[in-house]
Amino acid sequence: MNWVLKKFDALTPLELYAIIQLRNEVFVVEQNCVYQDADNKDPNAYHFMGWTDNKLVAYTRLLPPGLSYIEPSIGRVVTSPAARKSGLGRELMKNSIDNIYSLFGKHTIRIGAQLYLKNFYASLSFQQTSDIYLEDGIEHIEMILS
Questions:
Q1: pLDDT tens readout for residues 43-53
Q2: The domain at 2-108 falls in which architecture?
Q3: pTM here?
């Protein structure tokens, strides 16, 4: 696995295309959810990518404090369907947490998690901090890692 962290302006056109393609594959097609992925946060985010054999198989968007929440945040967490059940999602999140701490200091991290992934995030020490809410027709909760 080749892990790469880049600001938006440093992404190559092929990297950006791979990110858009993976996010669409999972969030739009697999989850059958029509939503506005281009939310004006990407240009101010760091993009953490996991590549294998020149294919993007894991990705998160790392957001600075004040962009989505008061705290820094990890969003658009996605692994390729072909790479699931391999522990890659856990590795992706652990590395994303480490990157958030390196970029913004060791502060609380807040995420908006799909409800069905609550136990996964809880296994990484995130704690639920909100009631269930609908976002793009999918049940979500806010969680923090202190």
A1: 999 999 999 99
A2: 3-Layer(aba) Sandwich (3.40)
A3: 0.93
